[in-house]
Amino acid sequence: MTDAEDCAGKNREVAVAGVLGGEREAAPVVLAPATIEAAVAEVRALMGARWLAEIYRDKVLPLRTRSVRVHAAARGESVEPHHTLLGIELKIGRHRQHCPDLATARYLAVWARAGCAEVAIPYDITQISHLADELESAWHQLWLLAGYTTACRSASFQTRVRGLLIHDLRREVNASGAGPAVPLFNQNTKQRTQRV
Prior knowledge:
Layout: H1 3-20, H2 36-47, H3 52-60, E1 65-69, E2 79-84, E3 87-92, E4 95-99, H4 102-114, E5 118-122, H5 125-149, H6 155-176
Antiparallel strand pairs: 1-5, 2-3, 3-4
């Protein structure tokens, strides 16, 4: 084994266990991926059901949702929720988007960082907070795994892996769609039972 492979194997054995919440013995010992595609595939395999597009597809889209346009962050732009005198705003670079509450700002911040221009958001505001928690956690886990998978590789290799992960995520979310602009409501308001 070369020094780089040894470095990658030792670092990843401990790091992957820590990121996935397991013990050191449960962590797989794998050599550093040879290609960018192999690194992306490994990160996606390690993410499993925590892949953001899967969370979006499995937990957000089945709910009653509405579509929201988000200013997609360009490379290097910061995305942060801000408390102002007028309420909560999501600041994306120099652009500001008003949000009704902090949970919505956190939810939209994940998708703005991913570069998605239009996403579905649950109509029921009680669902947004735990989805925002899960998405933020998965977002940070994605970058930790990408860093650990490519730890002993060059900076350009790491950048290309991160770029390809974002590209795949954005493509899958856009393919899933943002849903209707206004959710469908049950228009049946009759309260009388029908007689036979």
